[in-house]
Amino acid sequence: MYNDNRILVVIPARGGSKGIPRKNIRLLGGKPLIAHTIEMGNASKYVDDVLVTTDDNEIKFIAEKFGAETVKRDGKLAEDSIPLDPVIYDATNQKEKSANEKYDVVITVQPTSPLLKTKTLDLAIETLLSKNNDDEFFDTIISVVDDRHLSWGYDEENRKYFPLYKERVNRQYLPKAYKETGSIFATKREFVTENSRLGDNIGLIEISKQES
Prior knowledge:
Elements: E1 7-12, E2 27-28, E3 31-32, H1 33-42, E4 49-54, H2 57-65, E5 69-72, H3 84-99, E6 105-109, H4 118-128, E7 140-146, E8 152-155, E9 160-163, E10 178-188, E11 202-206
Parallel strand pairs: 1-4, 1-6, 4-5, 7-11
Antiparallel strand pairs: 2-3, 6-10, 7-10, 8-9
């Protein structure tokens, strides 16, 4: 809890994976990948509960073994084409109904970011629930990495590549550009719906590529 705000961490971990089979429970440092994320969340000084949403019994067993609560994800929500928004919405609703309580903040944390640090998670929470430089509160905090590059696009109609930059300069002189990492997506509960987790006022926290 932070400033009387109840905080839920949701870790989505389905059994299927087209890239690396069973990636969420592959071993890293002698532990399943998801175990690192669970332990990181439980070590937070602000997080009230860590919840894993999964369609897979083995992942459920491992998640509970390492200290997370679990909810069953419907098979339709575990398909490749399903985005995370309805998955997180469903998991949050299930948890709130079973516990008969409401959360103020819902944070999505990925099992594929096992090197994410607890202090980074706590920083995201502090940033979300404290006034920013404009004396306002953020609705959503997203983790990003600096992604400034000499990037190119492709014109399908004319079949030509074109630069997305104005002039060729060293990377440090390019305009700031950020890429979402997926490691942390923290948002206030009222913005968690079937179709979105984005609030109106968005804040970014830059993290290291190692943590991402």
